[in-house]
Amino acid sequence: MKIDAGGYTQTLQEAGAAARRAEAAGFDGWWAVETQVDGFLAATIGAERTDRVDVGTGIVVAFARNPMSVALAGNDVQQLSDGRFVMGLGSQVKGHITKRFSMPWSHPAPRMREFVLAVRAIWRAWETGEKLDFHGDFYSHTLMTPFFDPGPNPHGNPPIFVSAVGPLMTQAAGEVADGLISHGFTTERYLREVTVPALERGLAKRTDGVKTVDISLPLFAVAREADEDISEAMRFVRQQIGFYGSTPTYRPVLDLHGWGALGDELGAMTRRGEWDKLADAIDDEVLHTIAIVGTPEEALAEAHRRYGDIIARLNFPLPPEGGEERWRELLSRSRATA
Length: 338
Description:
Blueprint: E1 2-7, H1 12-24, E2 29-32, H2 39-48, E3 54-57, E4 60-61, H3 67-80, E5 85-90, H4 94-100, H5 108-128, E6 134-135, E7 140-141, E8 160-164, H6 167-176, E9 179-182, H7 188-204, E10 214-218, E11 221-223, H8 231-245, H9 251-256, H10 260-271, H11 284-290, E12 292-294, H12 296-307, E13 313-317, H13 324-337
Helix pairs in contact: 1-2, 2-3, 3-5, 5-6, 6-7
């Protein structure tokens, strides 16, 4: 299992610094999060300022773009990074796609499945020189002239990971992707009882001979030293859980654990504009079921206990600045005993 780092950055300068710190701390990869900066640009900066770590997008919003623009951007970052790029795609939710990006929304799981197939068809045309002739229900790509053809990537095409929470999108990832990015707002039980079976249903439909799809999990975690004040970090994680719990997309996780009433409460709070109170609604049971809290050693051990047999990549929040040597030693010991 690879141990990665990631987190939100507000500027491209912060993204570059975060990628360097992840590499210095001994992590296997660094993931750019697309919130206040463009995910592909952040990954580009991260790739340019590192030498060893994998660089991923966790995620870029696919439906705010089109397969051709994504294929080109992914090809660029893969070449710049010397083959260290992992392209993570996500659908976002209807409100953001239609209201924030002014793009069409319909049938997200079939659309994402087709999106990935279209990207692969474009890459195949560049790689082999064959005619681009992709026809789908949502996307069609039939024009590629030499002037716009970058040719085969010397490092091969990057793996495509698809972000999913619900079973339909998870199954689509199993059908066409190289990996699945599970959401931090999940639990060990949800992964085992809902995510993995849906992924296996998708894999059963594949015709390309692929038998496994890697799962990457960005953790909600507070991994700090025993003598540190973790109250601010704990409140941030509670706030994150409250934010996602207020959204219908993530309601199945709450329902599985019998926490449907909490989802109703959180949704009502957001409709009243009480965003600053979401953290107060998340009790310790919910916090410790979804998130991992402890010292770095305790957090890493608990992550292995919960997910070691089903997760290929665990993504921890990037440690506070100054903790690089501590994590480098910890990760080195962990690999030595694995």
